[in-house]
């Protein structure tokens, strides 16, 4: 009705999906940096992991909420893929925090 055809796929509002995917890629990149000890010691500290994880969860949550408002206003259906990507971002963000702070106090071998 009020949208361009590229904003929807099979009746679902998919305009914001690339932003979700970008946040997921950043979360996965942080995950791989935490896994490899050489990269972890050079590139990240606790504040970085905490702030990136919290911000990615917060921003993707706000994005999902706002996409729900947009979908309601223009009469489309929600994007289930974006919801699953949000769940993945939340899970990876929590795993990043647990991984970093659980391996932080261990001595190097």
Automatic annotation (TrEMBL):
It comes from the Bacteria. Keywords: Membrane, Transmembrane, Transmembrane helix. This is Group-specific protein. The chain crosses the membrane at residues 15-36, 43-61, 81-101.
């Amino acid at each position: 009705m009020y949208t361009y055809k590229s904003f929807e796929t099979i009746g679902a509002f998919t305009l914001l999906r690339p932003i979700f995917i970008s946040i997921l890629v950043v979360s996965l990149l942080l995950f791989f940096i935490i896994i490899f000890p050489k990269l972890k010691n050079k590139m990240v500290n606790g504040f970085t992991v905490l702030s990136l994880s919290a911000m990615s969860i917060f921003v993707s949550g706000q994005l999902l909420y706002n996409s729900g408002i947009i979908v309601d206003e223009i009469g489309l259906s929600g994007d289930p893929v974006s919801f699953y990507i949000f769940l993945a971002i939340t899970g990876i963000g929590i795993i990043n925090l647990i991984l970093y702070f659980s391996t932080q106090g261990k001595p190097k071998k």
